[in-house]
Amino acid sequence: MPWLQLKINTERPQVATWESALLKAGALSVTLMDNADEPILEPGLGETPLWSNTQVIGLFEADINTQAIDKQLQALQQAGEHWRWEQLEDKDWSRAWMENYHPIQCGERLWIVPSWTAPPDPSAVNLMLDPGLAFGTGTHPTTFLCLQWLDQQACTGKSVIDYGCGSGILGIAALLLGAASAQGVDIDPQALLATRDNAVRNGLAEDAFPVYLPTKAQLQASDLVLANILAGPLVELAPAIAGLVRAEGQICLSGVLTSQAETVMDAYRPWIDFDPPASQEEWVRLTGRKRM
Question: What count of other Cβ atoms lies within 10 Å of the Cβ of residue 279?
């Protein structure tokens, strides 16, 4: 069944008004999109990111009365605002998405492989992963940079903490690369479920990768600490995260923009000697070793 979309071009102060009006008019969902190539890469804590020029999109069933909705919305229209109706063809969106998600090579040994695809290199370390509600698929530069770094490390026998584990991709990768143990922490209960599911999907025992909410975690200092979150939390949590690294252990931080790298490194320099940053697009990976 086809659907109808109503796309409204507006400015930030009017977004909430249009969102409420579309839902009142019978929209099944409302989506907000950047309408002027204005990326918001790291919103403030508790802040909902909105663009100066925003497109508000309402999704409607195909048999609605578009003229009646136009009439209903006209009273809200301000100078410079305009909208248009578009037909959205029904399709198997899950199948379309699957066709565009392919195996990713993350160094010499490690591949991230969707579970419906045969590994390109069966002899490699193949992490089977289906993207879901939790962050971490290998496609984002921050995750890819961390995986690439892990691929280069001697993980065998090491203990690992994945701080902000999301899908569990980093901790699972470390285990598949030979780590002796891994623990995960995340503030999102959905991430904990995703990590457990992905660990089992990769042939790990249910207790091989225990994961916790921060208030429940009782973590021991480990050989490798991975934290792919955001610059703000990384700075705020620097004493706690650095404290999880054993003496002469290694740390890998990401979720950091190039412009934020020095600020993040400064927060960890009381404990960590950093390697030169690695970058991809506007993102960086920061790695180093804890001093004795």
Answer: 15
Chain-centroid distance of CA 123 in Å reads: 28
Beta bridge partners of 126: 111
What spatial distance separates the first Cα and last Cα of the chain, rounded to whole Å? 64
Among 73, 252, 53, CA closest to 153: 252
We find that the CATH architecture of domain 134-290 is: 3-Layer(aba) Sandwich (3.40)
Q: Which of 241, 244, 271, 245 is nearest to 255 (CA)?
A: 241
Q: Between β-strands 104-105 and 53-61, what pairing exists: parallel, antiparallel or unpaired?
A: unpaired
Average pLDDT over residues 167-191: 95
- Give exposure, 104-140, as e/b (b: 16+ Cβ within 10 Å): bbbbebbbbbbeeeeeeeeebbbbbbebbebbbbbeb
Strands 53-61 and 82-88 turn out to be unpaired
The contacts of residue 287 (CB under 8 Å, 6+ apart) are 149, 250, 251, 252, 253, 274, 275, 278
Sign of the C-alpha dihedral computed for residues 212, 214, 215 and 221 taken in this order: positive
Distance between CA 73 and CA 20 in Å, rounded?
11
Q: Which CATH code is given to the segment(s) 3-90?
A: 3.30.70.120
Asked if 224 contacts 155 with a C-beta cutoff of 8 angstroms, the reply is: yes
Whether the CA torsion 193, 199, 203, 209 is positive or negative: it is negative
Using DSSP bridges, classify how beta strands 104-105 and 278-280 pair: parallel, antiparallel or unpaired: unpaired
| Euclidean distance between CA atoms 60 and 26, whole angstroms | 7
For the segment 200-233, what is each residue's pLDDT rounded down to a tens digit? 999 998 788 999 999 998 899 999 999 999 999 9
Judge if pTM exceeds 0.70: yes
- What's the full length of the chain, in residues? 292
